[in-house]
Amino acid sequence: MSAKVIDGKEFAANVRAKVAEHVARLKEENGITPGLAVVLVGEDPASEVYVRSKGKSTVEAGMNSYEHKLDADTSEADLLALIDKLNNDPAVHGILVQLPLPGHLNSDLVINSIDPAKDVDGFHISNVGLLGTGQKSMVPCTPLGCLMMLRDHHGSLSGLDAVVVGRSNIVGKPMAQLLLGDSCTVTIAHSRTKDLAEVCRRADILVAAVGRPEMIPGDWVKPGATVIDVGINRIERDGKKKLVGDVEYESCAAVAGAITPVPGGVGPMTIACLLANTLTACCRANGLAEPEGLTA
């Protein structure tokens, strides 16, 4: 069996096109332009690249992009004051504070100071609680992207056996909640799971989000299963640097029914879903119908 490759680049491009279409309609019919504010503290090179990419994608979708770059030694009080200002700015519908923050800043305090309705990362404790109890919330971007691709591939997910390998607050836990919401039978597995291989082998949907290069080999995959590889790991092989996921791609692709590649799978969906969340937040703030197919 040769797995169908789930092309995240193409899927993300379609999501961004849908977002841009809705944004254009909002402008024309309601005179409203969604706005996304991104806050970067310090000069982490990877974060700077990511923030630039977010800003470019926001503008391309027809939204307003507000970037706030603060010095690495910015005080917690100053950062919280900026967030309060953005919370009260009607032109800003989404707020994202780029992580990680410098060590002297309390990330939980900062994230939970964001208005939950503008928390387009879905990290605020209120959104976590709403998602966990099946209520309307802002949903973390990466799990949302995974869910969109799974729905597109399977149609209905009802009754499928799903295993999520990884229990992070950013991916593993919200991914499990989203799959439960679509009526999957869900297992959260992790490094201390007994007989992890056997747990993975029973999955119709296997989501790898553990952050360990090529941890899951093909003989852990149920024939015909859908494998969603969230991992992005930089390794060196044969003297060359390479990006790999949390699964052994070749051996898993030989067994699975469908699989996401790394790179080009889940990664592109994260920014696409950030734009979708900003659009959703804008619609909710203005009492307008939410865009179909862009939410959980």
Automatic annotation (TrEMBL):
This is Bifunctional protein FolD. Signal peptide: none annotated. The keyword Glycosyltransferase does not apply. Residues 140-284 form the Tetrahydrofolate dehydrogenase/cyclohydrolase NAD(P)-binding domain. It catalyses: (6R)-5,10-methylene-5,6,7,8-tetrahydrofolate + NADP(+) = (6R)-5,10-methenyltetrahydrofolate + NADPH; (6R)-5,10-methenyltetrahydrofolate + H2O = (6R)-10-formyltetrahydrofolate + H(+). Belongs to the tetrahydrofolate dehydrogenase/cyclohydrolase family. Pathway: One-carbon metabolism; tetrahydrofolate interconversion. It comes from Albidovulum litorale. Catalyzes the oxidation of 5,10-methylenetetrahydrofolate to 5,10-methenyltetrahydrofolate and then the hydrolysis of 5,10-methenyltetrahydrofolate to 10-formyltetrahydrofolate. GO terms for molecular function: methenyltetrahydrofolate cyclohydrolase activity; methylenetetrahydrofolate dehydrogenase (NADP+) activity. SUPFAM superfamilies: Aminoacid dehydrogenase-like, N-terminal domain (SSF53223), NAD(P)-binding Rossmann-fold domains (SSF51735). NADP(+) binds at residues 166-168, 232. The keyword tRNA processing does not apply. Homodimer. Its EC number is 1.5.1.5, 3.5.4.9. It holds the Pfam family THF_DHG_CYH_C. Residues 6-121 form the Tetrahydrofolate dehydrogenase/cyclohydrolase catalytic domain. Keywords: Amino-acid biosynthesis, Histidine biosynthesis, Hydrolase, Methionine biosynthesis, Multifunctional enzyme, NADP, One-carbon metabolism, Oxidoreductase, Purine biosynthesis.
